[in-house]
Amino acid sequence: MRRPLVAGNWKMNKTVEQATLLVADMLPGLGAVRTVDKVLCPPYTSLMVVSGMLSNTDIYLGAQNIHWEETGAYTGEISVEMIKEYCKYVIIGHSERREHFNETDEMVNRKILSALAHDLFPIICVGETLEENEAQRTEEIVSSQVLKDLAGIDISKAEQLIIAYEPIWAIGTGKAASGEVANDIIGSVIRKTLKSLFGENTSEKIRILYGGSVKPQNAGEFFSQSEIDGGLIGGASIKPEDFVRIVEAAA
Question: pTM of the prediction?
Fold first, then answer.
């Protein structure tokens, strides 16, 4: 039985002061849910203060991105060494990184390898565009991303991986895939591809999340599906009541 996980991706939102208020509003509700792994992913500027607020809780902290090098002349970048004292999780390969910052599968792969080498849990985002979906290319695109992103990963590290299926056409648009459709893609494409890489036993232990316009009103539809192990939540993660209700739905 895979333990559910719900991660909140705050994206480029909230000052340190606003982050403090947001976490304070969430803590009582999140603390009451014990059967779900809960992860907050604020901007880098708030990692230190949020880390302090979570220090005596069962809520984990995650970063929204990393560079694959540990140090060097990479102005504006953040390495695993810089975040690992605060974070247990890191989001890698989000579609917004791929689209706006030209991240390739090769870059995503290097980041995953770096995260695993430092014992972080990477949340790896894969998903197709609307055009690819309408052209019936979902299986081709998503399986290719999984294969390229996870190239060279040792099976001994595979259980640290978390995959987030985020159809790009559903992110921030209000259009969510149905629970049944998302479950089918996760089971017949992503889980199947993981089995080809790591074998059935290990692949069944890897958690796969759904992301894309998840709200309290539809969270139960996704989390009731057999192959969906939780969610990577965007907009609703910076609304305290909504995020708590989504975590409760996962429980």
Answer: 0.96
Interhelix angle 47-54/16-31, nearest 10 degrees = 30
Q: Which domains does the chain have, with CATH numbers?
A: 5-250 (3.20.20.70)
Angle at 196 between CA 191 and CA 202, to 5 degrees: 65
* pLDDT tens digits, 103-162: 999 999 999 999 999 999 999 999 999 889 889 999 999 999 999 999 999 999 999 999
Catalytically annotated residue among 67, 94, 103, 128: 94
DSSP states of 41-110: E--GGGHHHHHHHHTTSSEEEEES--BSSSSSS-TT--BHHHHTTT-SEEEES-HHHHHHS---HHHHHH
Among candidate residues 88, 11, 84, 22, the one with its CA nearest the CA of residue 53: 22
Active-site residue 100, yes or no? no
Catalytic residue among 96, 103, 128, 166: 166
Is 227 marked active-site? no
Question: Residue 101: CB partners within 8 Å, gap ≥ 6?
Answer: none
